Amino acid sequence: MHVYRLKFRGAFHVDSRGNDSYEQADSFIRSDTLSAAVLSAWALLEPEAAAERAKAPPFRISSAFPYRGTTYFLPRPISSLAVRLDPARLRDNKKLKKIQWLSVSLWRRVVGGFTLDNAENLAIHGMLALEKGETVDFREPLWTVEERPRLALDRASDSAVEGLLFNFGRVWFDPDGGLYFLARFEGEVAQAGFEAALRLLGDLGIGADRSNGNGAFTFERAVADPGLKEAEEGPAVALSLVNPAPSDCGEGWLDEAAYKLVSRGGWIGGTGLRKKRLRMFAEGSVFRRLLAGRVVDVTPPGSVHPVYRDGRGFFVSLEG
Predict the structure, then answer these.
(1) With contact defined as beta carbons under 8 Å apart, do 17 and 30 qualify?
(2) Are 61 and 35 in contact (CB under 8 A)?
(3) pTM for this predicted structure
(4) What is the mean pLDDT of each run of 10 residues along the chain (320 residues)?
(5) Domains of the chain, with CATH numbers?
């Protein structure tokens, strides 16, 4: 298992929910978006194998999560969300419900049974939570969301639509932080090709509005890693989006599971066509046994080429 850290040169806008709301911008990059972006860049480098590689990518990746310095954050396990607070601590409810990311140290305690029911036992910084005593500099926020006014354009005439303004959301990361993701490859050749594509993607940018410099980044293979163990069997927690394969859906496959479903959509670049929507298990979902997941064809009518969404699971052990 390899760890890659992305350091952004400027702002970025990623939101593949496909709801036409440019104000909303995700502060992390989900696995299906990252996989599709890497495969698109890889197709520019090696176009002859692009179609087959899109159907069966020679890698599996997690979503890209926040880090600061050498401190990595993981999505809060879904199983930790249903917390009954002591009446004396109800004032902590809003603060605790906002927590989306846990430091690896705190994450280990939570999957081991520690309950997030007392804000006094935690160091909380907005959506981030750490154990008391963890030394991370939060004098500046890890990221900020900026909204900039934009004027809509008529696609037919390429001229401004008078009076039609909208806000465009962009995320800025502190220079000491960024996003990281975990990856596994089918051999060294696949890893070399992936890294070449990732390097090109960093120059091209990821997300929307790349022509204005958004989404550009550099990457490094991390020396320090979160110390997680990729799961070989259950129970395990998903660090990617997962769309289950038919072989995953056996009898009792959701017994003792704790999960959240998200709907994925978005546009096909340069076409004006929407991808078919797909529901997937979210990061942080916990399952009694592993789900292989699958790559799903989401090609809409009228598309001149097939479009796929990567729903293969990337799981880490609850015990490692």
Answers:
(1) no
(2) yes
(3) 0.91
(4) 94 72 81 95 94 95 95 93 68 82 94 84 90 86 82 64 71 94 95 97 89 89 84 90 95 92 84 87 94 94 90 87
(5) 2-69+136-227 (3.30.70), 228-320 (no CATH)
